């Protein structure tokens, strides 16, 4: 029996299997959850996630043969929809380690094997009322922290406390501020952590590009890293708007343009272009260290 009532929880069920979707709906209705919508395709799910009124998503790894994990990653990274922090439960039809790993990497909160009982489902919902895991933030992953407490690298990975929409709806605003305020504040913390992680990734990728180009002297040996660098730089441009780093837009835009030139087909990067990259990396490093001279230093260094 559920410890709480779930009347106020707003849920979306993204499952193509009619029988499974019906089972889930009947299970949660027993505990008061009636504000539920069905979604049958990834495109429809993306449209629905762009609205700011979902607390819980129960889904399967695929909808109509299309992977859901890529969309969930975009949500967690704040690139689709206004709420990266909705609670997600993914239903697996078999204990496949590879599939489970892909689902975990997408940022889901929990996994359940089907067929499932109403008791299993409500026990998981009850556990979310009690609390949820903090999120880990890296350059390529945003989602619940599932690492063991004895990991030696624990302090090196950024974590943030995130809103708990199920708890908010069930325990009558137990945490004080409105859910919208909690989402906005956590979103700002997430954004700043992503910017810092991206800064480290920029330095890492540039270091690899410089070494690889020195060994091969050709585009083929560095193209994948150059394209990854462009993606990181362009997302940084988007994220720094409205932050204390906004004056670095020009520096990051220059990095993206340089990457685009170096990615052009049938063209080897010039040694001078490769030589600019470490200067840009240092400028970005100083920018994120809130060095007021970062931009002027980078401009002067690029002229020399």
Notes on the protein architecture:
By secondary structure, this protein is α/β, with parallel strands linked by helices. It folds into two domains: 11-176, Rossmann fold (3-Layer(aba) Sandwich), CATH 3.40.50.2300; 190-303. It contains eleven helices and ten strands. It has helices at 18-29, 42-49, 69-76, 97-105, 118-130, 165-170, 179-216, 223-240, 249-262, 271-288, 294-303; strands at residues 11-14, 36-39, 56-59, 62-63, 66-67, 87-92, 110-113, 135-137, 142-144, 158-160. The protein has a five-stranded parallel β-sheet, with helices on both faces. Helix 8 runs antiparallel to helix 9 and helix 9 (249-262) packs antiparallel against helix 10. The longest helix has 38 residues, at 179-216. The N and C termini lie far apart (72 Å).
């Amino acid at each position: 029996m559920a410890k709480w009532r779930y009347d106020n929880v707003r849920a979306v069920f993204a499952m193509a299997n009619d029988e499974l979707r019906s089972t889930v709906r009947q299970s949660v209705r027993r505990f008061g959850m009636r504000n539920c919508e069905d979604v049958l395709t990834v495109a429809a799910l993306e449209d629905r996630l762009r609205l700011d009124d979902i607390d819980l998503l129960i889904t399967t790894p695929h909808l109509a043969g299309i992977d859901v994990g890529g969309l969930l990653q975009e949500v967690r990274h704040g690139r689709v929809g206004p709420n990266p922090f909705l609670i997600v439960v993914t239903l697996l039809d078999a204990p496949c380690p590879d599939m489970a790993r892909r689902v975990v990497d997408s940022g889901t909160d929990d996994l359940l094997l089907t067929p499932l009982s109403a008791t299993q489902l409500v026990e998981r919902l009850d556990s979310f009322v009690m609390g949820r895991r903090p999120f880990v933030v890296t350059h390529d992953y945003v989602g619940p922290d599932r690492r063991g407490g004895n990991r030696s690298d624990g302090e090196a990975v950024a974590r943030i406390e995130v809103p708990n929409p199920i708890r908010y709806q069930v325990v009558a605003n137990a945490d004080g501020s409105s859910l919208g305020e909690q989402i906005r504040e956590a979103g700002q913390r997430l954004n700043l952590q992503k910017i810092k992680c991206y800064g480290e990734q920029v330095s890492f990728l540039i270091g690899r590009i410089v070494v690889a180009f020195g060994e091969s002297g050709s585009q083929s040996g560095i193209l994948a890293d150059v394209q990854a660098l462009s993606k990181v730089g362009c997302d940084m441009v988007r994220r720094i708007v409205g932050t204390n780093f906004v004056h670095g837009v020009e520096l990051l835009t220059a990095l993206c343009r340089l990457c685009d030139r170096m990615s052009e087909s049938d063209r080897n990067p010039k040694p001078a272009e490769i030589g600019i990259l470490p200067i840009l990396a240092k400028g970005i490093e100083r920018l994120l260290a809130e060095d007021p001279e970062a931009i002027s230093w980078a401009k002067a260094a690029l002229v020399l």
